Amino acid sequence: MLFHYHFWTPYVEETEKFYEDNGFRISQRIGKYEGDFQTFNPPLTWNDFREKNILFRIIETRKGTVNITFGYGKKIMFDHIGFLVSMEEHNKICDNAKKMNWEVKVGERRTFITTPYEFKIELQIHLDVIDTTTDIAEIEQLKMVTKMKGLENGLSILFSKPVKNISSVVGDEVTIKEAVIKGFLSSNNVDPNGVRIFDSFLVSKQLFLVELTSSFVKY
Q1: What's the gap between Cα 116 and its chain centre?
Q2: SUPFAM superfamilies given for it (predicted)?
Q3: C-alpha R_g of the chain
């Protein structure tokens, strides 16, 4: 299950506010302050630490089966997407990656696969990275930008089946261009890192209203 993406960004506070305004909760904030990594988790707010010059390594936002993270970077840079898999799936995917000569780093909590498309894929087997498996919130589609063709084919070989919720176009910068997130509170909004986000229910509703209006005009 596609559940996650991560960006580095100079717009850390703005990104947090964007997702919080759209129904996500802030689950953790970890940043480097006075030489040490410390937590600044809720109930702390930005008013409690905004002036402390913290370099945030990770801020995690959650809603249902969606987990979106970001950390401070001098410029906006997309880093990775994440899939929640079983241990059996994990091992098979890692075997496939090695056969494709894609670098695999198995960690204590998660595995990263480095793709030739200049981003990484996280494999996660722990359900505690999401809030619930029953909430309507989920990542339904990602449209990505890569510098070379072949992403869809590469993913189908990696996962031993087509990955139908990821598509790509070729461009100058590797990033996520669009995301369809079921349960998002608004639609056709752009987050501070350039990801245009749609809610599938709101899009369907808008299309229905357009078709309904067209029918009235026709008759």
Answers
A1: 19
A2: Glyoxalase/Bleomycin resistance protein/Dihydroxybiphenyl dioxygenase
A3: 19
Locus of tokens 């402390």: 52
Cβ 196 vs Cβ 177: under 8 Å:
yes
* Residue ranges of domains in the chain, CATH in brackets: 2-218 (3.10.180.10)
Residue partners of 93: CB distance under 8 A and separation at least 6: 85, 113, 123, 158, 159, 160
Residue 1 DSSP code = -
Q: What are phi and psi for residue 213, nearest 5 degrees?
A: -65, -40
| 196: its two tokens | 């245009």
Say if residue 67 is exposed, middle or buried (CB neighbours under 10 Å; 0-12, 13-18, 19+): buried
Q: pLDDT, tens digit, for every residue of 157-201?
A: 999 999 999 999 999 999 999 999 998 888 779 999 999 999 976
Which whole-number Å values give the CA distances from 211 to 182, 198, 218, in the listed order?
22, 19, 10
Distance CA 65, CA 83 (A): 11
Residue 10: both structure tokens together: 């100079």
Paired strand residues for 112: 105, 122
The band of 136, judged by pLDDT with boundaries at 50, 70 and 90, is: confident
Give tens-digit pLDDT for 11-44.
999 999 999 999 999 999 999 999 999 999 999 9
> Is the CB of residue 189 less than 8 Å from the CB of residue 197?
yes
Name the token pair of 118: 């200049």
Q: What is the pTM of this model?
A: 0.88
Q: Which residues make Cβ contacts (< 8 Å) with residue 45, sequence separation at least 6? A: none
Tell me: pLDDT of 132 over 50. yes
Q: In the beta sheet, which residues pair with residue 6?
A: 69, 80
